[in-house]
Design goal:
Low-confidence stretches: 92-99
Structural class: alpha/beta
Helix content: 25-40%
Largest sheet: 5 strands, mixed
Mean pLDDT: 82
Strand content: 15-25%
Distance between the termini: 99 Å
Order of helices and strands: HEEEEHE
Number of domains: 1
Strand order of the largest sheet: 3-1-2-4-5
Radius of gyration: 27 Å
């Protein structure tokens, strides 16, 4: 008696152009989302650096950023604090101190902050028009002077 060995044909994965298109489309969408997020974070870091050069102090919490232009007492940490971007040390005063202060022209920097929670414009040259502009940009943000 001879034994006949029957091999089951293994299922081969079949590739098609439609499947390749679907995989590449998903990969491209994922890369676009990651790239957009990276671009927004880089713009926010640039804004933080410029705001701190002009005397601002940024407290970055899990829920968003708190921007303040007057010194706060120690202990303004609380739960959820991720980091603090200190105000840059002020150099010796120049005759023209426009580079050392925050004004209406600098309000555009706040557009790059992803989630501003509170902005205090005390000790700045921001007018009521600039404050209203920030309130239009971020209606849920607490903007004060």
């Amino acid at each position: 008696m001879s034994a006949t060995v029957v091999c089951k044909a293994s299922r081969r994965i079949r590739y098609s152009l439609g499947g390749l298109l679907a995989v590449l489309t998903l990969a491209a969408l994922g890369a676009a989302v990651v790239g957009y997020r990276h671009q927004r974070l880089a713009a926010q870091e640039h804004a933080f650096a410029e705001i701190s050069k002009r005397g601002g102090m940024i407290y970055v919490y899990e829920e968003g950023a708190y921007i303040n232009f007057n010194p706060l007492p120690n202990g303004f940490c609380g739960t959820g604090l991720i980091r603090i971007v200190d105000a840059a040390p002020q150099p010796t005063p120049f005759a023209d101190d426009s580079l050392l202060s925050f004004s209406d022209e600098d309000v555009r920097l706040i557009q790059s902050v992803l989630h501003p929670v509170s902005i205090n414009f005390s000790n700045t040259h921001v007018t009521q028009q600039g404050i209203d502009e920030v309130r239009k940009m971020f209606p849920r943000c607490d903007v004060s002077r």
